[in-house]
Write a structure and sequence with these properties.
The chain has a single domain, classed as Phosphoglycerate mutase-like (Rossmann fold, 3-Layer(aba) Sandwich). It has 6 helices and 6 strands; from the N terminus they run βαβαβαααβαββ. Helix 1 packs across helix 2 and helix 5 crosses helix 6.
């Protein structure tokens, strides 16, 4: 099994540091450029093999990223891959949430009117049970928090172990079976040099 995880490119809200869950924002110009920068590296990573399956979140930013990094590849839209539902915290920053509710932590407290980690983990587990089988290469284009939870669960770890697995926009990561064990073989690769 090889699971190639792609976080969508940048939207206008990402640089503001606000929670973007169900708000259906498109990529901005920088997000499209990020995805185009990632495409050659992703194509080298996949090689001559076409993925057995490509799954994408229903939100525009993920679908657009998928079309830019894997042009011409058919993708199955899955509601299970949507981002954390932030509820009352949608569109506001974690700093503002902290000022309203000191000590709040999305990983342990969830979001009022939205989801908690247990609910997101249930979606991720359902996706793994329904879609990830055998010796296949699967590409998933989704969202930061969701992919962190999915990665932890794919590795057989509790969902909260996704906390330290930060992801940049338009990044690719890989979890694969290596010598009989599941491992992270690439993490948060963007194809862009950090300065």
């Amino acid at each position: 099994m090889r699971l190639i995880l792609i976080r969508h490119g940048e939207t206008d809200w990402n640089p503001l540091g606000v929670f973007v869950g169900r708000t259906d924002l498109p990529l901005n110009a920088n997000g499209r450029a990020e995805a185009e920068t990632l495409r050659p590296s992703l194509q080298r990573l996949i090689g001559d093999d076409t993925p057995d399956h490509v799954f994408v979140s229903p939100l525009a930013r993920a679908r657009e990223t998928a079309s830019l990094v894997l042009p011409g590849q058919l993708a199955t839209v899955s509601e299970l891959l949507r981002e954390f539902e932030y509820g009352e915290y949608e569109g506001i920053s974690s700093q503002l949430v902290q000022s309203i509710r000191p000590g709040w932590d999305i990983w342990s407290d969830g979001c009022p009117g939205g989801e908690n980690l247990r609910e997101v983990a249930a979606r991720a587990n359902r996706f793994l049970e329904e879609s990830v089988h055998g010796d296949t290469t699967i590409v998933v284009v989704s969202h930061g928090y969701f992919l962190r939870v999915l990665t932890a669960l794919t590795l057989g770890l509790p969902a909260e172990m996704g906390r330290p697995l930060l992801l940049d926009t338009a990044s690719v990561s890989v979890v694969a079976d290596v010598r009989g064990r599941r491992a992270v073989t690439l993490w948060n690769f963007t194809g862009r040099l950090a300065c």
